[in-house]
Amino acid sequence: MERFRWQVAAVAAVGLALALEALPSVLCWLRAGRRQQQRPPRRQVLFFPSQVTCTEALLQAPGEAPSGPPAGCRCSLPHGESSLSRLLRALLAARASLELCLFAFSSPQLGRAVQLLHQRGVRVRVITDCDYMALNGSQIGLLRKAGIQVRHDQDLGYMHHKFAIVDKKVLITGSLNWTTQAIQNNRENVLIMEDEEYVRLFLEEFERIWEEFNPTKYTFFPQKKRSH
Amino acid sequence: MERFRWQVAAVAAVGLALALEALPSVLCWLRAGRRQQQRPPRRQVLFFPSQVTCTEALLQAPGEAPSGPPAGCRCSLPHGESSLSRLLRALLAARASLELCLFAFSSPQLGRAVQLLHQRGVRVRVITDCDYMALNGSQIGLLRKAGIQVRHDQDLGYMHHKFAIVDKKVLITGSLNWTTQAIQNNRENVLIMEDEEYVRLFLEEFERIWEEFNPTKYTFFPQKKRSH
To answer: Tens digit of pLDDT for each residue in A96-140?
Structure first.
């Protein structure tokens, strides 16, 4: 009887110990599963000049008549992906907010994308440079007319940033001014980064400039600048 | 005697099981220790305009006479850190190679840093835009004269990148042209990223352009361009 009790105790001890031993592995496995389920943060590098492609399918407003250029558009442009279409997609993913801090903004496609987001109820705020607001084909006037808040500098330095923040989660930044000249002809780069730290730092910079360019603080009429 | 044997077996089983149980934790602990020992990859965001500070101590060539501005320089400028001094530090960390892909380059401090690296035996290669090579105070002629290889475009689009790659390990990129105007007056950003993937992609872009701008392939003399 005594021997039997010791046998049971030994088996129970081994069982318990094995169960305890397996625990970290099981936890590890569960944690790894959860990590795999999480989508990896978005990282993309776009180089320009961008191939000229049709972006109509991307820019179709939901309420527009189906007679407009549809998803199966037959215009003569290529319909594949390009650096511009990837940039448009990254912007059009916005659901709640879009901050734009842009030296020059005259690309009609990017202008339409921003107006679309505004129509969808996304809170759009734009900071730009006062000297480049009147650029040929500038989108700034159109955005203001559509009811989007735009603020600009009134000093001699350039507001030379070229970044966007989508839903306070994704930072889009690089050398690219949002002009057709730059998109189609220049060597440029754009980084698209889902990165908490970078987004925080650039959002702080945006809010600093937004507050500084508050239109109630205008002190003088913008004057001509000298060099780039 | 039999009872004693079972007691020994039970104790041995528990001991073995406990040892096995502890194994993953010990491995985990060792691995965590190794991770902590590794320096975290460098990530820095610089915003401009930069405070004007004295950068002489950083730019002192090793062979220069000690009568030049020393580490304890007494000039009237502040001697603390600034965005420019941080950018200089990131560049001056180069030991083997430096690729520069810059639209405009006229900052004398950044020019001196690049010349210092060249003197130290770092392999420096520069790509720039042909229209901005003759900018007031351009550093490009000085770099060429010092024996640094410079290549430039010969087409109508701008070579508008503003990036550097240090030792094929650190990418420095952003909106900043390397001019005193931009450094001291503009709103600008520069990212410093020790990131294998970004470095690989930007190095590929550099090599593509380097090969394309090969001076043996010149086809015509640069002409005036139109708009930015």
So the answer is: 999 999 999 999 999 999 999 999 999 999 999 998 888 889 999
Q: How many CB atoms lie within 10 A of CB A211?
A: 10
Identify the DSSP state of B218.
-
pLDDT at residue B206, rounded to an integer: 98
Nearest to A90 by CA among A78, A102, A98, A80: A98
Please answer whether residues A57 and A70 qualify as being in contact, where contact means their C-beta atoms are separated by less than 8 angstroms: yes
Contact B112, B83 (CB under 8 A): no
Interface test with B, best of A28, A160, A200 (most B CBs within 10 A): A160
* Annotated catalytic residue within A155, A167, A168, A195: A167
Longest dimension (CA), chain A: 103
Cβ-contact A190, A46 below 8 angstroms: yes
Interface ipTM = 0.79
DSSP A217: G
**Beta strands A43-48; A149-152: pairing state:** unpaired
DSSP-derived 3-state class of residue A4:
helix
Å from B149 to nearest chain A CA? 20
Whole-number Cα distances in Å, A97 to A59, A102, A199, A224: 18, 16, 13, 33
Would strands A149-152 and A123-128 be described as parallel, antiparallel, or unpaired? parallel
Average pLDDT value over all residues in chain A: 86
Selecting from B3, B182, B227 the residue whose C-beta is nearest the C-beta of A6 gives B3
Q: Say which residue the tokens 């491995």 belong to.
A: B27
pLDDT recorded at residue B87: 97
Residue B171: its H or E element: strand B170-174
